[in-house]
Amino acid sequence: MSAGFVPPPYPYERLGELTALAAKHDGGAVDLSIGTPCDPAPPEVIAALCALDAARGYPPSIGTPQLREAAAGWMARRLGASVDPATELAACVGSKEFVASTPQYLRLRDPSRDTVLYPTISYPTYAMGATLAGCRPVAYRTLDTIAEADAKRALCIWVNSPGNPTGELADLPAAAAWGRARGVPVLSDECYAEFTWTGGATTILRSGPAGVLALHSLSKRDNFAGARIGFYAGDAELVHYLREVRKHAGLMPAGPVQAAAVVALGDDAHVEAQRARYLARLSRLQELLAAAGYPVELPDGAFYLWAPAPGGDAWGAARDLARRAGIVVSPGEFYGPESTGQFRVAAVAPDARIDLAAGRVGA
Fold it and tell me: Are strands 186-189 and 154-160 parallel, antiparallel or unpaired?
């Protein structure tokens, strides 16, 4: 039998050595590797999870009318974009499954194209989604460096702003224009939009919905990662196509989770409080890294520090930080072959844990 696809090791499961080194400290390891929220979701959101009526029947795959209206209201209020909740928006089971599964559905829609374009330094699921769809994952540095031959074969192009792991802000209007000029759907992953530090939060949909989709998640905004809920919005034809195919795939966010998401999307006060927490933690981690000999700039968005490793040895820097500060960070190779000389630090531990790690290096 010929060899088929062999899944590579999941990146964060390769951190056992670093975790073991960090755990030798009194007080244990401080895990700053995965961007998983550590702060509580609002109590009103948690209370809404107990809506048993929403758990009794099958929930609508596209999202309840209340959820879609809440999501559209949030986009208008916080991001300055108007979408029709009836035709231009639908729910998804968190954003990661959408990133991983959408290329296979688009390939069915247009078998003549076989290439998924994604940023060179980026969240690894963009490339994996292409692989799982049997497509060519092709990384790009900037829009103007994309080969015309790849553009002609492109099934879609991903943009991510604010970006993971770098925190960079993409030129979303330029991405929308690039895709429209070539008939390539632009998929804009905006799950960190609320945590934009340079300028205000925005969305690709400010340039209009034609040919584009914006993807959002409550995981980061609302500390609701375990609930698995998000939504996509934009081009009505694309939204309709994905709604229909995803119904057949059985992709439906749980009913109580949809009810809780309505509450979360209607409240901005808890997000402002979370923004303040992340900004303070980023500054504290910047102090920690400087004290350990790893100076780094604050990002334009998201809640990660993207730090250069001396000599380009990210794994060596990660081991050093595990030994000296007891922190676990992510070596850059997780985010593409051009990232091997840097490492990512996530501001996701409680303040007391970050202070504990900072004290170990005299910060």
Answer: parallel
11-40+269-360: which CATH architecture?
Alpha-Beta Complex (3.90)
As a whole number of angstroms, the distance between CA 345 and CA 279 comes to 13
Query: Fold for domain 43-265?
Result: Aspartate Aminotransferase; domain 2 (3.40.640)
pTM above 0.90, yes or no: yes
Crossing angle of helices 255-265 and 65-74, rounded to 10°:
30
Instruction: Tell how far CA 100 is from the center of its chain.
Output: 12
**Token representation of residue 210:** 């034609």
Helix (H) or strand (E) holding 136: strand 136-140
Q: pLDDT (tens digit, 9 = 90+) per residue, 27-70?
A: 999 999 999 999 999 999 999 998 778 788 999 999 999 999 99
Six-digit token pair at 270? 């808890």
Q: Is-contact 332 165, C-beta < 8 A? A: yes
